[in-house]
Design brief:
Chain lengths: ~400, ~220
């Protein structure tokens, strides 16, 4: 598996579901390679015979919400992760109280995603044999999960259009009207413009062909009219539409046998390509919520080690160039400018939470691991659409916990 | 070895703290190495369950660590070199080490023929090979494929449960979590890097789910 195929793998399942939902809610702004594959291969909803609407099942009684005071020596009665950090770093100046609480129990559940209004966390589960999307509200604390959807359609607002995969013609469905129509995608992954006016798809062969064959990108109107090739790159991936709903962010190799990838804005009408960033094995691209910025990773560059790391770049190159973060790890956009980072620090007793302001170029610690000693499992975490909370699966109990972000 | 003794040996080794170390000497990071595919029920393996991973019950039989060609590969534990460029695939070159505790480590997609002869005793952390690229170029898919099998070479185990490392910190990489294929009939099962089933080579598929999510290729 190539480094970039890892992105595919990382988003095809698990929290990829969440990202797909996020993409649908936010006009695909935050989806990278795999979620797009994900959209392109969107499974049909389970049949009514297999997923019946049922009342909420019985759940274990939740514990009360916790509020951990910074610098308090009193340990919380229950908390995720290991014990307090043995050598707590200096306290962040901007967080007097950091609330954290457990919102699911009984080891539930991987791959959660946020409701569009940030009021609840959603996840797929099958308690008592009742498969569905369940939602647990943040308020009041201690709320129990309830089934919110049996169709696994994962449409939580935002765009009304979804794409179902098919061998030759993907099917676009307006979930409100029920209308369906084909797109001549050849079974390739598809992205739709958040405003519902344009569609784009691209050739994504598997295996060695992925990096050896030029992958063409195609665009059309939302009804498939005017479909035409607009460009191509080796190992190409379309990250998502930019804010104008005309350009798409694409990643790929200009040269076949060179691991230098570019991140570029491709005009779906003219085919004009504007390079935004370039780097060795450039991957893991995710657009900010308003699509003003993109975050990405450059890796395995032995000749230029300083290039390796997490970067951000404005999607309008007239406003600036790439900026490298001073920390490396998992990252999610909090809004259109602030990127939340959970650094990769093997051996640390607790994971910490940081924020990088893309415009200012400044880094702030959001959560002191001495006060909130979290341990995230599987890089399974997300920031609420309103930016107020971070949800994560805890390593020790595999339940979902929520941290309030200052 | 008799089957009973083998099982006893496996049980003893498995009961101990994770007995092995990482196969790469450098710490993880964007400039050194990172996990590009987990062991087990990955989404990628599901897509390739009837082709690339068909012999491994549809699952990814090892751990893929993306790293630049020529990165030093080290033995995960003391042992005796069992094979060099033997059967087992994962070309262009591979290496097997018998750790004398019921487990054999397998290092695939190596750059060159490893400079250790079968029968050589190697120590944990000793350089034994250089990483390569599964397609023979160093620009297509540079990574180390690591498997841990039993001595019969018929079963493979999750290296994460046998290698002493801070895996949940190591996987803090990029914009998305680790992804595993979901069985909607058991949606919580096999969804974590440290919760994956053992593999019996040649056995029936484990991930040919009736209701997969996402569906991927039929």
């Amino acid at each position: 598996m190539t480094p970039r195929q890892s992105v595919f793998a990382a988003m095809c399942a698990g929290l990829g579901v969440a990202l797909m939902a996020f993409a649908l809610r936010h006009g695909q702004a935050a989806v990278s390679r795999t979620s797009l594959e994900h959209l392109g291969r969107r499974p049909a909803a389970p049949t009514a015979a297999t997923v019946a609407m049922t009342p909420a099942p019985a759940w274990p009684t939740p514990a009360p919400a916790l509020r951990l005071a910074r610098h308090s020596s009193s340990a919380a009665p229950a908390r995720p992760g290991p014990t307090r950090h043995p050598n707590p770093p200096p306290a962040a100046p901007d967080a007097d109280l950091v609330p954290i609480r457990q919102v699911t129990f009984d080891g539930c559940c991987p791959g959660a995603w946020w409701a569009a209004d940030s009021s609840a966390l959603h996840f797929i589960d099958r308690p008592n044999g009742r498969l569905g999307v369940y939602g647990v509200p943040l308020r009041p604390p201690g709320s129990l999960p309830r089934m919110v959807d049996t169709a696994l359609d994962l449409r939580d607002g935002g765009t009304r259009l979804v794409v179902h995969p098919a061998a030759e013609h993907s099917v676009v469905k307006d979930v409100e009207s029920g209308l369906e129509w084909p797109l001549p995608t050849g079974g390739n992954p598809v992205r739709l413009a958040p405003d519902g006016t344009r569609a784009v798809w691209w050739e994504a062969p598997a295996g060695r062909a992925q990096v050896e064959l030029l992958g063409k990108v195609y665009a059309s109107g939302i009804d498939g009219a005017g479909a035409q090739a607009i460009g191509g790159l080796f190992d190409v991936d379309v990250v998502g539409f930019l804010a104008d709903n005309v350009q798409v962010a694409v990643v790929g190799r200009p040269v076949r046998d060179d691991p230098a990838y570019i991140l570029a804005a491709l005009d779906t009408r003219t085919g004009a390509l504007r390079e935004l960033a370039r780097g060795n094995w450039l991957s893991d691209v995710v657009l900010s919520r308003g699509r003003a910025w993109a975050a990405y990773v450059v890796s395995l560059d032995r000749r230029n080690p300083d290039a390796n790391g997490v970067w951000v770049v404005p999607t309008d190159p007239s406003t600036g160039g790439p900026r490298k973060l001073d920390r490396f790890g998992g990252y999610r956009w909090r809004d259109d400018q602030r990127l939340v980072v959970v650094p990769m620090e093997p051996g640390s007793a607790s994971h910490s939470i940081w924020q990088f302001d893309a415009a200012a170029g400044s880094t702030t610690r959001l959560v002191d691991p001495a006060a909130v000693p979290i341990r995230v499992a599987n890089n399974d975490w997300s920031v609420s659409p309103d930016g107020h909370h971070l949800a994560f699966v805890a390593e020790d109990d595999r339940n979902i916990w929520v941290v309030e972000l200052p | 070895m008799l089957p009973g003794l083998l099982l006893a040996g496996l049980a003893t080794a498995a009961a101990a703290p994770r007995p092995f170390g990482l196969p790469l000497a450098e710490p993880p990071g964007p400039g050194t190495w990172y996990i590009s595919q987990s062991y087990g029920n990955t989404a990628y393996a599901f897509a390739e369950r009837r082709s690339l991973y068909g012999s491994g019950q549809g699952l990814h039989m090892g751990l893929d660590l993306a790293t630049a060609c020529g990165t030093q590969v080290v033995a995960i534990g003391d042992g005796i070199v069992l094979g060099v460029d033997g059967r087992g695939g994962s070309g262009p070159h591979n290496l097997m080490i018998d750790h004398q505790n019921g487990f054999v480590s397998f290092y695939g997609h190596l750059l060159d023929r490893p400079p250790v002869a079968p029968g050589t005793y190697v120590r944990r952390g000793e350089a034994v090979a250089q990483s390569g690229d599964m397609y023979g170029s160093c620009h297509a898919s540079p990574h180390l494929h690591l498997e841990i099998r039993d001595r019969s070479l018929v079963r493979a185990f999750n290296p994460v449960t046998l290698i002493d490392a801070d895996w949940h910190s190591i996987v803090l990489f990029g914009a998305a979590p680790l992804a595993f294929e979901r069985d909607l009939d058991a949606p919580r099962r096999w969804q974590a890097i440290d919760d994956q089933p053992p593999i019996r080579f040649g056995g029936a598929p484990l991930n040919d789910f009736d209701h997969p999510w996402p569906r991927g290729h039929p």
